[in-house]
User: Fold these one by one.
Assistant:
Number 1:
Amino acid sequence: MEALSWLYEDDPSVEDAKAFIENHPDALTVPLHKAMEYSASDEVILLLLEACPQAAKELSDGFNALHHAIRMCSEKVIKALINAHPGAASARNLIQEVYHCMML
């Protein structure tokens, strides 16, 4: 999706995130996961989560958003995702992700 090209830049901007949210309100699940994969700032990720909290429950490549957040070790984002989807903390492979993150 060409509309997601802003996510693949180094350090996607808050302005681009706001524009995407405004112009694509029905397509916000994928950007949340991709923003984390491409190391977007906490502010960009939290904007996407606020605009589409149900994205925290969706899977991308078999993983929920919390899995992606743990890989980047952002406590602020991890807490927001758990608040948005408390059940995510019991998802499969989460313990391995936490362990891997602690070993980095």
Number 2:
Amino acid sequence: GYFKKLIDNSEGNPRSLYAMVNKQMDRKQIKPLPDFTENIQELATSFNKFFVEKIDKIRNNIELCPKPNLDEDLGPDCCLMDFEPTTIEEVSEIIKEAGIKCS
């Protein structure tokens, strides 16, 4: 019927499909940036507030890790002269385990 035709018309175009779904569900997109204003001081203040709040959200979502104890005796056999390169998979796994999300 009607919805199948709408979906078929969006085939191969995910942006169009999501826009159609959002329209049908009456979802309104929240504007992430402040409205333009003729008052340049007000506009600058709005941008500043937006980015300060964004940074605060990011900082609040990052779990603080305990600092390593650098005074700890590592022993006479410990040598920190050679480092092996890491892989993309290792870094990805560390990020996944840390639960850090970017927005």
